Amino acid sequence: MKRTINGKIIAIVALTVAVICLSVGFSALASQLKVRGNIYVNTQWGVEFTGRIVESLQGEARSYEMPELSATAVSDYRVSLSEPGDSVTYTFDIENTGKIDAKISNIQKDKMVCSGYGETPEADASKMCANLSYTFTYTSSGRNVAVGDTLLAGQKENVTLKLEYKANTSSSDTPNNDVKITGLGITIIYVQK
Hints:
Blueprint lengths: L1 H28 L17 E12 L3 E4 L2 E2 L4 E2 L2 E3 L6 E10 L5 E8 L3 E4 L4 H10 L1 E7 L11 E2 L4 E10 L13 E4 L3 E7 L1
Antiparallel strand pairs: 1-6, 2-5, 3-4, 6-11, 7-10, 7-13, 8-12, 9-11
């Protein structure tokens, strides 16, 4: 029995020495390689409003304040529409000034709110909201700007924002008093194509 224990001890010591020798031998033959560097990503992304706004009034429509145009917003316009057939249109450009193709991933249209005044404010507001058209289209084709539309790098699209008091509105559907309309905002989200 003593021989068996001594044999096991010798085997364990021999195995340990072999593992140590292999480890030393492996480390003597191993190489360490490293890759180091820095990467800068310049996306050159840019989809924005460019150019100038052109306004067109039809019928008895009046403009009290021209919209302001910045790279990311068309804002603060004030107009009045008096009778069916009146309209105001604003044309301007959306341009992909970057080097990456873009597409529209989402269009969020604010909820139009009509607020009436006078004796029948709710009825007047309802009549006006039902007979007001608010569209955002491509000027050349008249097609609505829509999710999935692309704007290639360097491409420019002329677009038209139109507010119209529908011409086919009957006299019974016209408000008796003034109506204020808010909530005419549109947010267009472009992403990489």
